[in-house]
Amino acid sequence: MIPDLIVALVTGVAVGLAILIAERMSAIKAEKRKLEQLGTRLVHPLLLVLQRPEYFPRFDKIGELQKKQREAMKILEDPDLDDWHETSPSSLTKALVKYRNALRDQRHDREDLAQTIKDWDRVHGKEPNILEYAEARLLDANEQALRDLFPDKAERVRLETEFGKLREHGHVKSHARAFRGARARSERAQGDAHEELVAQIKATHAATPRAGR
User: Dihedral, CA atoms, 102, 108, 112, 115, nearest 10 degrees?
Assistant: First the structure.
């Protein structure tokens, strides 16, 4: 009787362990498939966005990210990105999280700068179109772009004088500096993300067996 109980107990334990191992392996495979799907959902679309050239930069709506950045942000706001980075951290996931955070910072600083400009104009502004001119100047519009936006030379002279006052205002200067810093960081992060995305695509292609082999 006792040997039979021992055999039954050992058998039960062995079966239980086998079931647990099988369930664990199944969960690992499911998580791996999920991460692979997430990688596909992020990598290819984001690389296409970042490689798309921008022929006509905009010099308005300083409170918003540029079109390419907005499109990248939509992809990077995937709720599973943080899980991917925490579960399977790599140089790629690190670069993507860093780029997303940099875009968030830039968006925040853009909004602050846009509001500060509006506040200054409400209190001190004297020239019509100063908001539009200030946004263009703060977005690094060149002389040709300024002539296209404001064809009248006399108006440009007046607006430049007014912009000089706005630019030297303490709050505007502070937020403009923060915006420039955030924009530079996001541009560096974009470059890093692009390099990692290209490397990931190359590695994936290299690991995929070719037909006929």
Answer: 130
Largest CA distance in the chain: 108
In 3D, which of 109, 72, 56, 70 has the Cα closest to residue 194? 72
pLDDT digits (tens, 9 = 90+) for 148-166: 999 999 999 999 999 999 9
Cα separation, 156 vs 115, whole angstroms: 23
DSSP state of 12: H
Q: Match 């940099």 to its residue by tokens.
A: 102
Query: Angle at Cα 21 formed by Cα 16 and Cα 24, nearest 5°?
Result: 125
Q: Under a CB-based contact definition with an 8 Å cutoff, are residues 78 and 38 in contact?
A: yes
Distances in whole angstroms, Cα of residue 92 to Cα of each of 59, 85, 176, 189, 207: 32, 9, 31, 12, 17
